[in-house]
Each structure stands twice: as structure tokens, then as C-alpha cells.
């Protein structure tokens, strides 16, 4: 009995699945072993996808960037969320960290609990608008309409990622705190790769 690849050819199937959004791509990889091999070819190299939204509504902005990054084949390993502007928590409090936590919850729910998500508040954002597809720049504190969210999703085959907080309660010299931070990094690297030097470190 002829398989799908026998009928349409591997190159054509590769062309089709490479145009699928992330969710459909994941389903395609589960169709059969041959389909899975084709999907593995599509995502055989590291890949970064990003999207930016300037929607003043926080929830809508998150939906826009998530939909944009998931509109193409990718298996998210980590995500970096940069939030600029005057977004406020749903409870109208003044705690900007609650906005970061809210973004963390929304992105984690969309990408999955196994995806490491980093949230941060930059002084400015530049990126391609998920809605208009135009390049825009926002500087925090300049102008009234400066709400923005930038989402970067990364796929790196074989990479093990985790988040290690530096800002934690600690009583003692700052140098000791940094030493413990470095020790935490080395211990994680050793636990997943057998080498105490990580391939890369992203710090905020």
C-alpha cells in the first residue's frame, strides 16, 4: 500500500509542513514515522521567532504576539517576553512586577508549562508589529501611546534551559551572592550535560 510520501513525494510534503502553523506542525509530526522524519528535517537547525505588539490592551497584545510566533513551525524551548509602556495589572495596583507575573502566566499557558519563560521590563522596544507587520520603536516614557510587548521564542535542538534567579533574599557580601549564583549555573550545567560550563547565558 502506497504511503502519503510515495504519492506526493518527500520534497512536496516537506514544502507543505514547513508552511504549517506550530500546532498543525506538531500534529503532522505525529501522523507517522515518515512524516515525523520530514518534520525533523524542517526543524533540524536552531530557530528564533519574534513578534511585537503595540496594542494598548494587555491581554489582546499577548494574544497577538503568541499567535504571530506560532503561525509557523516551531517547538518552543524558551521564550523571552519584554514589556514596555504603561501596562497595569488587572487589579489596578502600582506593582509593575505583577504585570510581569501576569505575562508569565499568559505566555506559559499558551506555550506550555515545560517552556522556560523570562519576563523583563526594558527601557525601549523595537520590533515588527504582529498586526500591521511594520517595524516600530517604542521608548519607555516617551509619548502617551507607548504600550508594547515583544515576544521571542527559541528552538535549539539538544539545548537544556532553565532560569536561575539572582535577585533573591541573601544576607551577606554581594560577592558571595554572585559566587552562589555562578555555582548554581555550574551545577545545572553539570547535571544536564556533564560539563560545568554552559553553552550560553542570557542575563537580565
TrEMBL record:
Instruction: Write down the SUPFAM superfamilies for this protein, in alphabetical order.
Output: F-box domain
- Gene Ontology biological-process annotations: positive regulation of proteasomal ubiquitin-dependent protein catabolic process; protein polyubiquitination
**Protein origin, superkingdom:** Eukaryota
Q: Which residues form the F-box domain?
A: 10-42
Q: Which InterPro entries match?
A: F-box-like_dom_sf, F-box_dom
Protein name, UniProt field: F-box domain-containing protein
Amino acid at each position: 500500500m502506497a504511503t502519503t510520501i510515495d504519492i506526493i513525494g518527500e520534497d512536496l510534503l516537506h514544502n507543505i509542513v514547513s508552511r504549517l502553523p506550530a500546532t498543525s506542525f506538531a500534529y503532522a509530526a505525529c501522523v507517522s514515522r515518515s512524516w515525523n522524519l520530514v518534520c525533523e528535517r524542517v526543524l533540524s537547525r536552531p530557530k528564533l521567532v519574534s513578534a511585537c505588539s503595540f496594542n494598548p490592551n494587555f491581554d489582546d497584545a499577548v494574544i497577538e504576539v503568541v499567535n504571530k510566533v506560532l503561525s509557523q513551525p516551531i517547538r518552543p524551548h524558551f521564550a523571552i517576553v519584554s514589556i514596555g509602556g504603561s501596562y497595569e495589572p488587572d487589579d489596578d495596583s502600582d506593582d509593575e512586577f505583577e504585570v510581569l507575573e501576569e505575562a508569565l502566566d499568559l505566555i506559559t499557558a499558551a506555550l506550555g508549562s515545560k517552556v522556560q519563560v523570562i519576563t523583563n521590563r526594558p527601557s525601549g522596544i523595537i520590533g515588527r508589529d504582529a498586526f500591521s507587520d511594520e517595524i516600530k520603536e517604542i521608548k519607555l516614557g516617551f509619548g502617551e501611546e507607548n504600550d508594547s510587548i515583544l515576544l521571542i521564542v527559541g528552538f535549539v535542538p539538544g539545548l537544556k534551559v532553565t532560569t536561575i534567579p539572582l535577585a533573591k533574599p541573601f544576607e551577606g557580601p554581594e560577592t558571595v551572592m554572585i559566587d552562589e549564583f555562578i555555582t548554581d549555573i555550574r551545577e545545572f550545567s553539570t547535571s544536564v550535560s556533564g560539563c560545568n560550563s554552559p553553552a550560553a547565558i542570557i542575563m537580565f
